[in-house]
Amino acid sequence: MKSFNRIYNIVISAVCMGLAQHPLGLGWLAWFCLVPLFLAIKKQNKFSGMILDIFVWGFIYHLVSLFWLSSNVGVEKYVAFITMLLANLICTLNVVVVFSLWHIVNRLNDKKIWLALPFIWTMVDYITSLTDISFPWSSIANTQAQDNLLPFIQFIEFTGMFGLTFWLVILNVYLFHFYQNKSLKNIIDSLTIFIFPIIVSFILVSSEPTSKEKIDFVVIQPNVSIDDKNDKKHDDLDMVNRLLDQSIPNLDSRQLLIWPETAFDDYYNAQRIRSLISYNLKQSLLKDSIDLISGVFEVEKDTYYNSIYFLNSNNEYNLSSAEKYRKIKMVPGAESVPFSETFPFLKDFGIIGNFAKGDEYTLFKYKGFIPFAAMVCIESTYSDLSRQMVLSGAEFLIYIANDGWYINPPQPQQHAKQTILRAIETRKPVLRCGNTGISWAVDDKGRVVQSLDRNTKGVLTSEGMELYSNDRKTIYVIFGDWLAYISIIVWFVWFIKGVLVLKRR
Predict the structure, then answer these.
(1) How many domains does the chain have?
(2) In terms of domains, do 49 and 161 share one?
(3) Are residues 61 and 199 located together in one domain of the fold?
(4) Is the pTM of this model over 0.85?
(5) What residues have CB less than 8 Å from 21, skipping those under 6 apart?
(6) Does residue 487 sit in the same domain as residue 363?
(7) pLDDT value at position 141?
(8) Residues 419, 489 within the same domain
């Protein structure tokens, strides 16, 4: 019976955390759903038993939250399924590492130091985000990127998303203590941990940053399927003309036009097509001095880049002289193979391709004088990348994506909602342009003020919308992931303390 209860606690905890990740408005489940897991591992006396419990929890959690990886329409079904399993295993191992390090601290100090857990979880999340196999998508912090939780998470302008990780784990730890011992002290401790960040958030959500310039934009969502994009009957000129046909009736006096990820290909050996594209863009956009942001599949000397081109009247929409941003963060296993730079033979195992990484935090200038940053696809999940852009001077952010690989929920919704956290962390308005959706306009409080749903063709414009750039830099932007640095120090101190105590015995 005890074994059944333990398994039940593990399963219910994992499923609830997985559902909290989904765009169902159930992010509040993460406030307490780790408690059953803690109850389960508390009953484990053996390290091997605890690790098995954690592995089961991690596998179920990531299966519930990431099952959509198996529905990639761009590859064979078995490849998509294997990809999902590998991603699940890697993400699960991260959680196993968390509890292994926690176990070490406990053994060295001869007692269960539950308060070490939020520091260790935050530390591991941060360190793994720096590696080739990083996948911040699966972070429990993303459970809080929900419309109904916006008043509760504004404090991350101080801490970044790792502050959410820390808060969720420490809240669950204190609730776990309260469940075991319903003393007045534990009640007060739990309420304090829960309420303090919320009070701070309610104060912050009512404040307004100094606005500078209204952003007049047009976001194009063409809803081109992967099959259509790969159809050899359509060349890149045809794709550009289709985008122009959708764009021109909506331009009016608006000065920023945004197209999605890989809107067209820029093959350097296809000079005729490149010239025609530049000519058509010039004929359509020059007279109104429109700034164009477009995702481009770029090839340079047999090297592939997932890029963004910034074209305007200054360079007369000439692809050869376009300002460029080349994607820095790749989708592990899809756009790049982890550790392939060290082991070149691995490059042939990429699902979509093996793209070269960019190495510059490129900023563009809206209207010729307002700096902004544009990033690609999964880069919206990396807090520090957006932070670096804002630290460099960006006054608003653009994310372009192509989620046509996954046409069904919850992938498009999960992907889009992560921009909410980036807006709050940096206090910058965000424009998101997705090929098949979801396209959003998000203000500096993380509120979605305009949207286009998935699998629809449509346009977002700034008409009737007050969205402004600003030059504010938050505590998080200035100091970065300081909470993660503190977490590393705290774990190291506990470790050293434990070693010294052990030597004295």
Answers:
(1) 2
(2) yes
(3) yes
(4) yes
(5) 64, 65, 138, 140, 142, 143, 410, 414
(6) no
(7) 96
(8) no
CB 22 within 8 A of CB 30: no
Which pLDDT score is estimated for 498? Answer: 76
Let me know whether 177 and 228 are in one domain: no
Residue closest to 379 by CA, chosen among 417, 329, 414, 338:
329
In this structure, what token pair is assigned to residue 176? 């776990």
Compute the chain's Rg from CA coordinates.
24
Within 10 angstroms of residue 3's Cβ, the number of other Cβ atoms is 8
- From the list 290, 226, 228, the residue with the least C-alpha distance to 259 is 290
Please give the pLDDT value at position 268. 53
Per-residue pLDDT, 387: 97
Task: Say yes or no: 164 and 231 in one domain.
Answer: no
Residue among 396, 392, 402 nearest 423 (CA): 396
CA distances from 24 to 36, 380, 434 (A): 22, 20, 21
d(CA 438, CA 446) in angstroms, rounded, equals: 15
Q: Which residues pair with 305 in a beta bridge?
A: 298
What stretches in the chain show pLDDT beneath 50? 269
Task: Tell me the percentage of the chain whose pLDDT exceeds 70.
Answer: 91
Q: Determine the Cα–Cα distance for residues 181 and 158; give it in Å rounded to an integer.
A: 32
> What is the H or E stretch that residue 120 is in?
helix 116-129
SS3 call for 315: coil
Residues with Cβ within 8 Å of 75's Cβ and at least 6 positions away in sequence, in order, are: 83, 351
Residue 477 domain-assigned? no
- For residue 373, the 8-state DSSP code is E
Q: Per the domain annotation, does 95 fall within a domain?
A: yes
Which residue range is the domain that position 123 belongs to? Answer: 2-207+482-504
